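Hi support team,

I'm filing this because I wasn't sure whether my run with EPZ finished correctly. The job status page said complete, but I'd like someone to confirm that the output block is well-formed before I use it downstream. Pasting the exact inputs I used:
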Amino acid sequence: MKEFKIEGGHKLTGTIKISGAKNAALALIPAALLTNKKVKIYNAPNISDIENIKEILRHLNVKMKEEKEYLEIDASNLINDAVPEEISKKLRASYYFMAALLGREKKVVMHFPGGCNIGKRPIDQTLKGFVGLGAKINEINDCYTITADKLIGSKIYLDIPSVGATINTLIASVLAEGTTIIENVAKEPEIVNVAQLLNNMGAKIKGAGTSRIEIEGVKELHEGEVTVIPDRIEAGTYIIAGALVGENLKIENIIPKHIEALIEKLKEMEIKTVLNENSIIVSANPNMKPTNITTKVYPGFPTDLQQPIVALLSVCKGCSMVEETIYENRFNNVEYLNKLGANIKINNRKLIIEGTDGLYGTEVEATDLRAGACLLLASLYAEGTTTIKNADYILRGYENITQKLKNVGAKIELEEYNKVGI
Ligand code: EPZ
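And here is everything the job wrote out:
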């Protein structure tokens, strides 16, 4: 197991370059299996979730060429073997292989996916999309066998604008016969990135990024390539670090539109920001103003930045409120933030945050990816040294985070420790 040791109280100044988006790359890689030709994915982040996805590719006998700038995928000799539970359980994104293998082979055998412990996270909407295309679902002890004689385009209405269900239905529909209309879809930028790759491979997709996507099925896809968009959640996390302890901290390689909700909130809080075309400069403001935040689907305030921004609100004088409307269990960071000296109360899906004068280093534990990010941000601000156990959670989604923070003045080390006992 790994742990972070962080000595807080150091100003961060300099430049952090944002990497490719985890939640785009994790969908682009499975989407590449829809062709036997080669697909190049530029700017995929070097994070543990991507390594886990590559484990599934190897299991399926998919060839990979890993160059510095791109990952080349060759599925010409794919073997459609059941994906072992121990691999698919490692991350939520493994279920994108359900869509890719169903779309390509008309059959897939895979267990219920993994993912951070932030709620029940059912996959009913993904299954609704597959059934809408003519697939049959057989589930025994959480193992799904999904088959179709053929996939036929149809109109599918999602009950909720689920990111995963949108991407899964999109991937499964591009080789279906006829036209598919998916209504009430999610509009996240990562979905647009996936549609971009599929269209580059010869798919006919219109409307990605809106609440209605239309796909005209094609017989086959050819070679293609795509550049993974910058990670808006990584960017938001470092922007919040700048709001906490930044002195002209520059975050570059961003798409401002993708983090508009955060930037607007920071303006409301009177955090000093200078926004350029693909970068932002942030400085801390000790007199920042409290605010209220409600998480929403894109383009609303992203749920993945809810836990990180609570670190900022916990040291912002006055009372702030946060409401988490996407997940039912995304406050696991609060007990550890309070252990660092924060004053936060949980009321169902709401947080009442009384800003405190200071946070004080101690030992805390990451319980999921963004909870870990929250604690890391808080420890950069806290007086003294903080140890964050289960740092592996954080490494799932933040490429080269130790070096990126060291480069701008943070005192941070990543160490190994042996989990004794259990
Ligand atoms: C993606 O998860 C992201 N993960 C999540 O990021 C992100 O929080 C989420 O989208 C929302 O933006 C990846 O892209 C790998 P959803 P996903 O389907 O697709 C419920 C991170 O930190 N729901 O939009 O699983 C679900 O329980 C991760 O990087 C159903 O009820 O999100 C949740 O409450 C965490 N039925 C809500 O909808 C379904 O069939 C949003 O889920 C699907 C979802």
